[in-house]
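Record format v2
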Amino acid sequence: MLVIKRRAGQSVLIGENIEVHVLESSSGRVKLGITAPRETVVLRKEVLLTREQNLIAAQGTTPEAVKRLLNGIQAWPHGRQPTHFVKNLPPTAPPPEESKQTD
Amino acid sequence: MPEFETKYFGKITYQPESVVEFPAGIPGFEKECRFLLIEQPINRPLVFLQSLASPQLCFVTVPVALIEPAYQLNLSPEELELLNLEKVPGSAVGADLLCLAIVSFHEDGPATANLLAPVVVNWRRRRGVQSVPADSPYSHRHVLFEPQEAPCL
């Protein structure tokens, strides 16, 4: 990894079109300004990580995996009484399986 | 009541007031701005976040407080604005503010929950956002269950 020390007011160039300005630096934080072409995506790392997890979460689920998850969580001490945490959710129409059970 | 095809529950009817707007979408799905929160007694404590635009897109979530009872929310001014909230009281996760962690399933390991970036819903205003704080002590891949078998060496 290339390591460069910079002070507020200075900048670093990446390639021909990207400039990273150090705007402010104080108490362990730096404020950066980034000049880049419109098509360059600039993301905080944590947003990228979340984006990756969301893509995995959207693809990898099967009803069987959900069932296993549910069984595992319901074994937790408060796993079956979560209404305290999810109050006020209006009822959604139950799925077909459940409507049979309510006879 | 409108009807809608869902990923896990087939066709369901729902109340229009059950729809939550995510003005900014969520990372990776920026154009998915309307979700239905599905909570059913048999599936508690899971809450399903079903996209209204894409029947095959449904996130499985767990209330954050179940995973981490002392969880601290840290919403940015922009996120508060997206939620139509002015300020968050000390105990943020309450009756009107839901805080859910999206679960990821992995072929090669146990299921994980994204505690770094919780889905926060202001139920009163039907607004939601996936909050991604900068200084979070929480993991984006929090392991929900310890592996049951030792890995093969």
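DSSP finds two helices and eleven strands in chain B.
Chain B touches chain A through 61 residues (CB under 8 Å).
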